[in-house]
User: Fold this.
Amino acid sequence: MEIRSRIAPTPSGYLHFGNIFSFVITWLYTRKQNGKLLLRIDDLDKLRIKQKYIDDIFATLNWLEIDYDEGPSNTTDFLQNYSQHLRLDLYNNFLRQLKSKELLFACQCSRKKIKKKSKDGLYPGTCLHARYSFGNLNTAWRLKSYSNNFIKFSDSILGEVSIDLKRNTRNPIMKRKDGLAAYQIATLTDDLHFKINTIVRGKDLLNSTAIQIYLANCLQKKPFKENTFLHHRLIKNQHNQKISKSKQASPVHLWREKKDGKIKLLQQIAVLLNVEASEISNLNDLLLHFKIENIHNLG
Assistant:
């Protein structure tokens, strides 16, 4: 089966080194096996999305020469033809299916209320039996308790994985209070819609993968579990914290402004991939020297 993978940034901030590390792994893994690569930009959350961040995605991919086979060519093309807001009907269809199977409940809790009542930081189940109407204003739709708490799947980096959903995530939101599908539904729907069969992610998204496999089973999309999953280690800062936009990670556009920024960035990635950095001056050099079996060392 031909590999079909995707790069899926969220334009809620400028891209940082951790983003690029994941993009490059995805690109290398796909190109090394003559697969197809999709650029999908996750822009559902309009309050966090800004055009300058969308522009930054295209500028960075072009600068690094990360090519792809499907997806928008620039910001205008994205907004007109590829935005997630053009696929709302697909997301809502899955939400309706979950609702018809009585797998959802309406929740009117605020973040402040949840934080006050929760003992472990997870949703405390406050509205699980309240029977609020799904049509009420300021109401989120949450997934009911899992029928199967443990999700097991095979990962090409980590091996056999078992996730305890009840322990790690409780009643996740499927539809937000603003009426839009939440991340788990949108991502699952998009991966199915674009026929993605190879999903490369950071280890911080293991719980998300488990939730999406569970949802796929509920929606009778069970082959989703048979996808190739690769959960790679995270890039951390000097304080041993995951590099992220919320932690004000140094943006890659600062590297673009340096004369030798591209080479130094790619050489840093080469070291992480067990490739001799001195051999790398561009992305194709990295492709030439990267060995597919090295992917197993990224856990």
In short: The longest helix spans residues 17-32. The chain has eleven helices and nine strands. The domain at 89-152+159-175 is CATH 3.40.50.620 (Rossmann fold). The chain has two domains: 4-88+183-297, 89-152+159-175.
